[in-house]
Design goal:
About 85% of the residues lie in helices and about 0% in strands. It has 7 helices and no strands.
């Protein structure tokens, strides 16, 4: 029975990492669609999300099955609870990748113009955070998870700066207001991806240390 349980746990870990890899790939595809102005790539993002949704449901069902059949305790229970939450955050990141693609497709009908902020830099930070959070999950590495928490400050600051730059651009180029305001959604979606990635990092810390740090002061969360 113990061997069967361990195989189920190993399979669950592989499944949630598969969801993570799928989401990471689709986010990258969405960012490339925007930066390269490629509508076909954006349409692929929307189509591919169905596979992410299907896999997310499968992971949740397997978590519930293991809980019902084996009634795990201690670190095994923490792992399953963390996977349930991480799985949900990954699905939301997948949805936000779709939102990015759909916003780009909407803007494709508008007159193109250079963005007043560095979308590429913000996307790099969001993608790096997600990659590091998934690595922390693979390696049960709480220290790496804490580095993800620290990186969230940068993406928050970039979003604030984006808002300021877009606001200034609207005032100086009111004819471009629709494009500029729509472009702000890119920044907002990336900032939300950073938030969900932070949730994943917090759950890795819970999984490895048994500590719920969600509502702690920022300095305490990074210790």
């Amino acid at each position: 029975m113990a061997l069967y349980f361990q195989r189920e746990m190993d399979r669950l870990k592989k499944e949630v990492l598969t969801v993570g890899a799928m989401v990471e790939e689709n986010l990258g595809r969405s960012v490339r669609a925007i930066l390269k102005r490629d509508p076909k790539l954006a349409e692929d993002v929307v189509s591919y999300d169905r596979d992410v949704d299907d896999m997310e449901v499968e992971v949740e069902e397997d978590c519930l099955k293991i809980l019902a059949l084996h009634q795990p305790v201690a670190i095994d229970l923490r792992f399953i609870v963390a996977v349930l939450k991480i799985n949900s955050d990954l699905e939301r990141i997948g949805d936000l990748a779709v939102n990015l693609a759909e916003r780009f497709l909407h803007m494709a009908n508008l007159e193109p113009m250079p963005l007043p902020y560095d979308l590429g830099r913000m996307a790099d930070v969001a993608q790096s955070m997600l990659r590091d959070a998934l690595d922390a999950l693979v390696n049960f590495d709480a220290d790496q998870a804490r580095r993800v928490l620290a990186a969230d400050d940068e993406i928050d600051q970039l979003h604030k700066e984006t808002y300021r730059l877009v606001q200034e651009a609207v005032l100086t180029s009111p004819a471009k207001a629709e494009v500029l305001i729509n472009s702000l959604a890119f920044s907002r979606h990336l900032e939300r991806i950073g938030d969900h990635t932070t949730n994943i990092a917090e759950d890795v810390i819970y999984m490895t240390e048994g500590a719920i740090i969600r509502h702690r002061h920022k300095s305490e969360r990074l210790d």
